[in-house]
Write a structure and sequence with these properties.
Helix 1 packs antiparallel against helix 3. A hairpin with a 2-residue loop joins strand 42 and strand 43. The strands form ten sheets. The protein has a 22-stranded antiparallel β-barrel. A five-stranded antiparallel beta sheet has the order 18-17-16-23-22. It has twelve helices and 50 strands. The two termini are 34 Å apart. It is mainly beta. The chain is elongated, with a radius of gyration of 31 Å. The protein has a domain of 122 residues: 3-Layer(bab) Sandwich (Phage tail protein beta-alpha-beta fold).
Length: 979
Amino acid sequence: MATAATFVLAAAAPAVAAPQLLQAEHQAYDLKAQPLATALSEVARISGRPIVVSTSLARGKIAPALKGRYTPDQAYAALLSGSGLKLVTVGNNLVVEPADTEVAAPNTGESQAGDAEQVAEVVVTGTLIRGAAPVGSNLIAIGREDIDQAGQSTAQQILAALPQNFAGGPGETTSGVSSRNGAPYNTAMGSGVNLRGLGSNSTLVLINGARPAGGGVAGIFADISIIPASVIERVEVLADGASATYGSDAVAGVVNFIMRDRFDGLESRLRYSSADGDARELQGGILWGRHWASGRLVAAYEYYDRNALDAADRKFAREDLRPFGAADYRRNYAAPGTIVVGGQAFALPPGQNGQGLTASQLTPGVYNKSDAYADTDLLPQQRRHSVYASAEQDLGPHTRLFAQAMLAQRQFDQRIIGGSQRTVSVPRTNAFYFNPLGGTGPVSVQYDFRRDLGAPHTNGRVRAYNALLGLTRDLGEWSVTFQGGAARQAERYRIDNYGPNSTALAAALADSNPATAYNVFGAAGSTAAATRAAVTGWFGTNGRFDAVSTAIRADGPLLNLPAGVAKLAVGAEWRSERYRQTSISFLSGTRPTTTDTAFPGTREIAAAYAELHAPLIDEAMNVPGFRSLALAVAGRVERYSDVGSTGNPKVGLDWKPVADLSLRATYGKSFRAPSFQDLRSGPSVAAYQPLVLTDPNSQSGTTTVLSIIGNSPDMGPERATTWTAGLTYTPRFAPGLTASATYYDINYRDRIANVNANVFNLLIERNVYGEVITDNPGASIVAAYYASPLLYNPSNIPASSIAALVDLQNRNLSSVRQRGLDIDLTYRLPTPVGDLLFGADASKIFSIDQRVTSASPVVDVVGTVGNPVDLRVRGRVGWSNGPWSASAFVNYTDGYQNQTVSPRQSVKSWTTIDAQLAYQPQAGSGPWAGVRVAMTASNLFDRDPPFVALRTVLSAIGYDGEKADPTGRRLAIEIVKSW
């Protein structure tokens, strides 16, 4: 739920694990005279030193220009000089108060800042109470300075560097490769967030506290690729269950993108990068803001364009993995193809047109093969336009109107594998018919149509908007906010040259006219161009996710306790969501067919919540072992019109036993409602497909099975119980050092899942997947499946070959318990040669105990394909001196096991280094005033991803896109100018 950001708060309270500067560190400031709130916000952003200030105190005040080098506290004091305000320290926060607190403030009905418990109006991620930090939870803040120093150009790059985020699920590197975590539903090449690897739909994404529209098929994930990175002020990540605060989806945590709504002035930026000549990026943006005594306005535009990354430019993007010491996973399709007749294979010779063939020209017992990754892209071409605007205006001394809107359009194009590898039956009537055994019956030819029809490629467009309008009214010390929002994400994609239209191809194969018949006996291009064009199949979809919402929230002081003021927030929300999709296909039939996909209708959600923050002990009470103790209790009840009601509580505790040590803990319950895709049922969502799977118990080493795909009709919510315990240590003996650690335990049950992602090792690990395997099904059962129009059998596998059924349906069938530790270390050290920064963020996962079905044994899957590794670390070192600064980052991903092959294979760890050198002149005039130039190298030493023999349903490849980036070394230059 969003609120008007009417207070300056550079960093959340002490529990925030964010890099912060030494308070004694001098930094250069060059600020013009401007509204006081804006000036304080700028110092907070530059220094990282938290400050809280009431809108009512700052309203109408103008801060003087500030130029020179100051500590944060000196800079704040200079801005407050002559304002009638003063700076005081409350806990670890700086608070602005009236200079004469002994004189009672006039009773204007406005909030006054004389008490630290009454001043805060900013809402931080993880709580709905103004000015409070999420009690007990570890909030990770990635600020604007962090983003710029890392040279990150997109929202997905910012989150990809976070050790707690897992790249599995919807993303550019998983599309067409992975069938896990909703990746197949990313038809418009977006990017999601997947905290803890629990699924992108189990991580709640917010923009200024508001839910954006859903992306992908059925709106199954929040697409962060539409967010303009240059307009992000900071990203707040709460890696803790938060359904008590936000409702559905906040199982693994919350990611909140806070925009630069308090910017004043004009900023432009231009960035160009290249991955050693590949996947070139161009990014440009402009940000404008203006403040006046009673309001503000910010508007921004960003353009982003990146070329596709050709698979041919990366040696590991291939199916023949023998050069890496693995197997050749190319399938038996090529052009020229292979004739299969009488149970025998005959490879057709290259360099001929399929006419005048003799049996002696063919190679018996051999299959021609081709690599599915030939003429494909690992990353799509992307082009995006994003517009963002926000405004706030006082309508009187107690009322404020606020609004925000973001509009984006993204276009994409990517060459993909498609469905061009087919086994076709050629009748005797075909003009080019040839049977090496001399018979006259139909022959099968395994043929690759790609070079005939053109490379399959998906292309399309995403249009999205997210808008919010609200009103905040001060009622004494309480504040009430009313708001309404609307959001839409419309996605259109089309796959051209997907493969042959089966109806048109059958007619062309039966054609006796050499000028119009299809010739699958020669090399590519042996068929007339007009015939090839006539059989080319394609399909596409138009999908749209719509949401509208209203909300009311009130918060303020509840009662005075000996340790301070207890605060309460209460509220209610209503949300309506709907997803609609229309598909058009020319994969069969004589003309394109349009179908409205049968998704469930409108879903309505009503919610009510309450949250209490209570200080129990403070330093003035002189309780031994307690400098402070605070408690937070929250609860939320939601009713879904389609899946029923749920209630979720959360309790948090902060305890400070001594001055330099803070301890914290939380306990709560969370849930995820089934998506529209989960609730689909009927023939349009079901399919039956024969597959050949590796089977160690079979004499041949393989077994042919029939897979059953679809949704269970009785889908319910997923539920989780989470508890955390952590500490933050700021030792007095080492000023500038902050150490934070948080242990977490997530018990996630009733998960909606299927075993489709692990289909190739179902028979390898029968002890795990036995519940979904039915051996030796009756012939009548198999015959019924084969008679269904839902059968998809591109390889023409006969029913007599089926030896088992495997159930790949989505159901509430699995559970996961994950335990781990998050660590953050930061040390800032001023030296005569400049200011130094050392730090490291790490995510250590002790176990991911997964039960695939209710009857299967518990298996620890941490460090396996499809799941997070047990350890990810991002180390950092920085230096700044005058106008120059440099930074370097070390990214470590631990090794893991590839369980999709038999026997299991070990995958090596992967370490990459990023570096940046930047120049930003001191305050002054001239052409360099307000300019920052930065040169960034990502993966500086061009380390290839570790080799993985990764098998998928469609193909195989030599790297794991869930754990590694195929881009390689990327060099970038960025110029930012403040006007």
